[in-house]
Amino acid sequence: MKNLFAAAALIGAAASASAFGLTEADQYGSSAAPAVADRVIEVDARTSAIRVRHGEAVTVHKNGKSVTWYFDGVAPSFKLSRILPDAQGADGRDVQIYIEPEVLS
């Protein structure tokens, strides 16, 4: 009986943790309409990383594909392929996105 209660408590704790976990949008931001983009970034074979500001909406073009993204998540960096599938070039390289913290005045 003691093991049954321990197992139930463990399951409850796991369910509770996942209920309060961060969503993808919480971590990385979310897609946005191209019309709200603050700027456009063209990524080519020489680009290894891009920098954006927290709270900025940016359209990124790579390999004939594009995404407009609102960078308001908590992650300080992540790979472009997370928000733009098939963004890796023929060489298999992926571009790192670095999010500069929001400056509070």
Brief descriptors of the model:
three-stranded mixed beta sheet, 105 residues, alpha/beta, 2 helices, four-stranded mixed beta sheet, Immunoglobulin-like, single chain
Radius of gyration: 19 Å
CATH superfamily: Heavy-metal resistance protein CzcE
Q: Per the principal axes of the C-alpha atoms, what is the gross shape?
A: globular
Tally of domains = 1
How many β-strands, per DSSP? 7
Name the helicity range: 10-25%
Oligomer: single chain
- Low-pLDDT stretches: 4-10, 12-17
CATH architecture tag: Sandwich
Give the CATH level 1 class: Mainly Beta
Q: How would you state the average pLDDT, rounded?
A: 82
Structural class: alpha/beta
CATH topology: Immunoglobulin-like
Output the strand order for the largest sheet: 1-5-4-2
* Helix and strand pattern: HHEEEEEEE
Number of helices: 2
Cα distance, first to last residue? 58 Å
Query: Could you give a short account of the major beta sheet?
Result: 4 strands, mixed
Q: DSSP strand (E) fraction?
A: 25-35%
